[in-house]
Amino acid sequence: MFSNVTAEISDEILKLFIGGLSFETTDDSLREHCEKWGTLTDCVVMRDPQTKRSRGFGFVTYSCVEEVDAAMCARPHKVDGRVVEPKRAVSREDSIKPGAHLTVKKIFVGGIKEDPEEYNLRDYFEKYGKIETIEVMEDRQSGKKRGFAFVTFDDHDTVDKIVQKYHTINGHNCEVKKALSKQEMQSAGSQRGRGGGSGNFMGRGGNFGGGGNFGRGGNFGGRGGYGGGGGGSRGSYGGGDGGYNGFGGDGGNCGGGPGYSSRGGYGGGGPGYGNQGG
């Protein structure tokens, strides 16, 4: 059982979802392009089972993480004359959570207790990518640190890498996941409610909803407060004035549990990924 789980996790880390493919792109032409950055163990353009028409997206699996990183560093990619949108695949367990497939540049870091300072977080996370801002949240009255923070990067792929792993900062097992605005949480929730678009990135046999095509540009507005205290859409931090509401209570407690649940606790079904080609 454990070995099977380990095998699945390692396979997902090596896999890229490729959106926005031309309908003319084949397994062979996608492979030819992606092999420039490493050895592929699998390559597939997803097709309608009845018509065999391309669904506008596919998956490639590399032989090691370094090759995945190299391919992502080489963005933008153009396959068969069309600019495509690669993203790191999302595991089956993470794909059902709100916001799993949203493209964001900010992470929520919970369970850091009171001692870490901004420089501790910077020292830890800058190895993953360029940091734009760090917000260590404090009580507005007492100035006491509230045990969570937000870190914003210059690239969504940095966030996708980070949430694949467990993180221990200053000896604390931390909860690290995508920071979602209230709008993004509501969007993710409504997508799930409609039943279309839980949008697995998992690969063969995954469920791809027809609504909400894989958008270019990716980032949602999200100027409001950021959600993410355990427990789905509850526990949003902040309102119109940018302040942060109480952490814990309604939002759940991000205390020092054994890492964060489900390998990154992304938050779950994002928009569906329909036909991209044309």
TrEMBL record:
Coiled coil: none annotated. Its main location: nucleus. GO terms for biological process: mRNA splicing, via spliceosome. SUPFAM superfamilies: RNA-binding domain, RBD. GO terms for molecular function: mRNA 3'-UTR binding. Residues 14-97, 105-183 form the RRM domain. The keyword Hydrolase does not apply. It holds the Pfam family RRM_1. InterPro entries: hnRNPA1/3_RRM2, Nucleotide-bd_a/b_plait_sf, RBD_domain_sf, RRM_dom. Residues 192-208 have a biased composition (Gly residues). GO terms for cellular component: catalytic step 2 spliceosome. Keywords: Nucleus, Repeat, Ribonucleoprotein, RNA-binding. Residues 182-208, 258-278 are annotated as: Disordered. It is found in: Nucleus. This is RRM domain-containing protein.
